[in-house]
Each structure stands twice: as C-alpha cells, then as structure tokens.
From TrEMBL:
Keywords: Ion transport, NAD, Potassium, Potassium transport, Transport. The keyword Transport applies. InterPro entries: K_uptake_TrkA, NAD(P)-bd_dom_sf, RCK_C, RCK_C_sf, RCK_N, Trk_Ktr_HKT_K-transport. Residues 133-215 form the RCK C-terminal domain. It comes from the Bacteria. Gene3D superfamilies: NAD(P)-binding Rossmann-like Domain, Regulator of K+ conductance, C-terminal domain. It comes from Actinomadura livida. This is Trk system potassium uptake protein TrkA. Pfam families: TrkA_C (PF02080), TrkA_N (PF02254).
Amino acid sequence: MHIVIMGCGRVGSTLAHILEDQGHSVSIIDQNPEAFRRLRSGFRGRRITGFGFDRDVIAEAGIERASAFVAVSSGDNSNIISARVARETFGVDNVVARIYDPRRAEVYQRLGIPTVATVRWTADQILRRLLPEGAEPLWRDPTGAVVLAELDSGHLWVGEKVGALEEHAGTRVAFLSRMGEALVPDRATVIQDGDIVHIMAGSDDVERVNAAVAARNGEDA
C-alpha cells in the first residue's frame, strides 16, 4: 500500500520506518524540514515540507493513490482538518487522526473518523500500573462505551468451555493469554490452568460480568 503520514515527530517517524519495513511505500509531511532528521539515512519514502491540510501538499505526497492517511502532528486542529481533507476531498477511506483532547476525540469518532486519544490512552496505561491487576481495562474506545478487560475470576473456569462462560456471564471472550501468547478461542475452546481471560464488554457492564462469574463459582463451591 501507499500511505501518507502527516507529522514527522517520534510517532510519525516510527510509523514510517515500520511501514516501510513491511514493504509499503510511504510519504511523510511536516511543516518543519528539520523534523525529517528523525528519519533514518536509508529511508526511501518521500519527504514533503508543508501543511498536511494543504491540498497541493498532500497531492504531492501521493494522496490520490494512497490506501491510508495518518495524521500525527502535534496539533489537534491540524490533524482533524487534514484527516477530513484526505477523506472528504480525496476519498481515502482508511484515515486515522491522533487527538490529544479526549473530548474532541469522542466527537470525531462519532463523525466516523477513527481517532487515537493520546491523553486518555496514556492515563489508562499509568492507572494500569498504579492500581491492582484487573482494576483498569486494557483498552477502551474513545467514547468510553466499550472496554477490553481481564476477567477477575477467569482462573475458576479451568476445564470449562469458553462458550459456557460466555453464556453464563452474558459477555464475549475476546482472547486468552496462554503461556505468554494470545489465543483467539471459539466456543469449544477449553480454558486451561494459567489462562488469562479477556472480555469485550460495555464499560458499565464489567462489574456485572465479574459478579456473575464469582456468584456462579460460589454456588458450585
């Protein structure tokens, strides 16, 4: 694929290197030509100096043949405007914008522009290191409505099938962590000793799911 990145900071340059290593062609835009010094000497992609929301600039970056556009500059307004230009003017479907303000991220997510809310993500990661294991979700969507979380009492389901757990707790098992590797189960997958069960649920529903699991196992005991 050809991918256009706006912003050659630490995130943008890292993305450019990873994507190029995976065999994609990359153009990267930044208003400051000094920012391109973050790119390795062997970087083969195009470096374009300018603003990512300038139509001529992103056209020079090859937006008309791009499969994706990523806006990761330091400015929320610049990121969202350039993302909208890429999608609405040039018809790029796969567009992602980094937004520092989580309230703005929620608004644009509802408008159909995928966003990464940096402040919310960073806060979540810090909380996961401060609070007891399982107290904070592994991931939440920008609106806060859906979370990925560890199941508190997953170890009590050893020997049971994933489908039984899902049916009893009224939830969806996203994946299992087994011996340091991730496993996407089906309903017939048997939970083994040491597995960590991760569920997808509404943010207001995680407590109910954990209570249902604990109550069921209390009855069995």
